[in-house]
Amino acid sequence: MMMRNLDLTSLRSFVAIADAGGVTRAAGFLNLTQSAVSMQIKRLEEVLGTELLDRSARKVGLTADGEKLLGYARRMLTLNDEIFDRLTQAAYEGEIILGVPHDIVYPAIPQVLRRFAKEFPKMRVSLLSSFTRVLKGQFARGECDVILTTEDSVEPGGETLAEVELVWIGAPGGVAWKQRPLRLAYEHNCIFRQGVQAALDARGIRWEMAVESDSTRTVEASVCADLAVHTVLAGSQPPYVERINHGGSLPELERTKVNLYVADPVHTQAIVALADMIRQAYGIKLVDRSVAGGLAAS
User: Fold this and answer.
1) Are residues 223 and 193 in the same domain?
2) Would you say the pTM of this structure is higher than 0.70?
């Protein structure tokens, strides 16, 4: 009788699709292209001679046979991963994508990355530094495993780690903050920009956009040269600028939430550990956190 074997890689993709609710997000979690994941599922369906995914609806679901397979697939993958853990004693290997807005990379993230590298030496963390809007879009598409954001509120699935004051910064000993109209320097996608402008309008302070750029370095250089002022979260200002002691001449700004979002489902214990390290860096006391069964290896 011909031996028939199931491909574990294809099973892993199948479970990821079931957990993520779609091929695109599953591909992001697995660090594969969408076409590669689709091809694996097609081969799995051919081997079993049945359709596993219901592609008729807008959101990909499981057929009756797909639902039958899911439990078996989870058990097979769990057993496979246990064998490797027991017999090879291999450390977690793979890559985690961490997204962080550029203005909160320091001081917490370098400490987190240093600690993570010691505890998971075979795991690689790719750090994406961008704007909150961009990072949330990448996270929604499954392109990031963990992201931090700076927002006025927190969306379902996220948790607030801290609330930080937004402060004015300028050149050391600079006078740009005294000029009217007040000259502002911001990136195009900065999430704080509109709120700051509204606060100035409410105080009747005339302002103008002196510097608009997609480059954070351009904005920082302009502020350092006393050509304009900017706002950052307290404690995150670069060393070559200073917090402006304006004595009430500028409006006090609102506090901003620093939020954490972790991909659901979580596919490796290393992601859980990284998220907990970030929580600890922000002074969050940890509670017991367990990972759902059937974790896919990275």
Assistant:
1) yes
2) no
